[in-house]
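Researcher: Structure prediction, please.
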Amino acid sequence: MADGAVWDQAMPVALAAAVSYLIGSIPFGLILARLAGAGDIRKIGSGNIGATNVLRTGRKGLAALTLALDAAKGAAGVQAGAWFGPDPALVAAVAAVLGHMFPVWLGFRGGKGVATGWGALTALAWPSGLIAIGIWLFVAVTMRISSLAALVTTALAPFHVWYFAGPRTAAAVAVVCALVWIRHHQNIARLLKGEEPRIGGRT
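Model: Predicted structure follows.
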């Protein structure tokens, strides 16, 4: 294959990844908390910039807005990638989550990617997005551990995505889910020790 042809194929993927990464790297949790006078959320709780840590400020509405905007980042990243083609859209899904987890503006220290990953998942296969919500709610209500709900949800996601959108999309989602699991390594360690906090503050 000629060098020009290789470049013609690689350029849309690279552009999709770059655009989606930049979208994903917008630290909505940090921005909203500061605008609301809640300070720097990186200095409280887990130090992450996601909705769960914003909730630790006591601002439930602010946390809900952060959750919605972080999910929108994932969906917007996929849509931006889709403008370049189907394969770039899959790469963009991963890039958006990487942007949230490792934002260049914050020294590559971001969130855990659950909401952004869900937004990307929903944009790729909306039935799977609904299934993911159902699984998360079931585990969260029955076990009352948010991180466990996220881990179970992401572990199952590639399987139903395969059914609804095929193996290529499932592979991209599997990469996203693996990243989420890696970012939850401390939660996993606490779960194994029985020390992970429960929803509502009871252990």
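Model: Residues 60-82 form the longest helix (23 residues).
Researcher: Thanks, that helps.
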